[in-house]
Amino acid sequence: MVGVGVAEVQLVVQSDDFGMCHAVNVGTVQAFREGIVTQVSTMAACPWFTEAAALAREFAIPVGVHQTLTCEWDFLRWRPLTDGVSLVGEDGTFRRTVEEAAAGVTHVDAVRELSAQAAKFAAEGLTLEYLDFHMGSSVPSAYDEVSAALGKPFIYGADESQRFASIEVLSDRDADDKKPWLLDYLDKLTPGVHLLVTHCAAAHPELAALHRPGSYTYRWAEEYRLSDQAIVTDPEIHQAIKDRSIQLTTVQAAFAV
């Protein structure tokens, strides 16, 4: 999948939330094997992480740690790997929003938790290629400290993010708009390394059970993920990348980290 040599335009296509649930794991593997996804961000604190790790090993998927300090769903709730009191809400699981986490999580608790997530990742025999975060920036200083300790890039950091010519998210767009948007995006890519973030999942009933009807996260459960899945596995998109001589790559390959 990843191109050989250096092209003027390089594209990293990332799929987030690997390990969150079985539907995400199945879809992500398909998106990597049959689509344009080149690297995958993995959630070590989530219930289906062990399966995700096994799949990453089996299919040699380039993976990073999706540093997790939040859990947005109504019915799929996950807990920290550590015992930091500031990490959790009243139910003992991660806080639901980035804003809540930013207001309540301490630097010390965040560093301990994110370090534990990276250690669990490594214990599965996975090679860490990069770090990013889930949902948004809750404790910026913690991401920087953990990245420095591990010697791997935090790709949304102040310096590392500047290495990309652009960073875009495919997911939070109306389904009918995604394909024309992506084709236009590919047309306009300039020389350099670009990052496109997606959220893939297979069409399993599990996705509809993540949230209450009308929840603020409802579009992220099924709608965004299933439409992302369709787009990244669309042969026309793959052909468009080939026709434009865009090189699919990973952070590690593009920046030799």
TrEMBL record:
InterPro entries: Glyco_hydro/deAcase_b/a-brl (IPR011330), YdjC-like (IPR006879). It comes from the Bacteria. Keywords: Carbohydrate metabolism, Hydrolase, Magnesium, Metal-binding. Its cofactor is Mg(2+). The keyword Lyase does not apply. Coiled coil: none annotated. Pfam families: YdjC. PANTHER family: CARBOHYDRATE DEACETYLASE (PTHR31609:SF1), YDJC DEACETYLASE FAMILY MEMBER (PTHR31609). This is ChbG/HpnK family deacetylase. It comes from Kribbella speibonae. The lineage of its organism: Bacteria, Bacillati, Actinomycetota, Actinomycetes, Propionibacteriales.
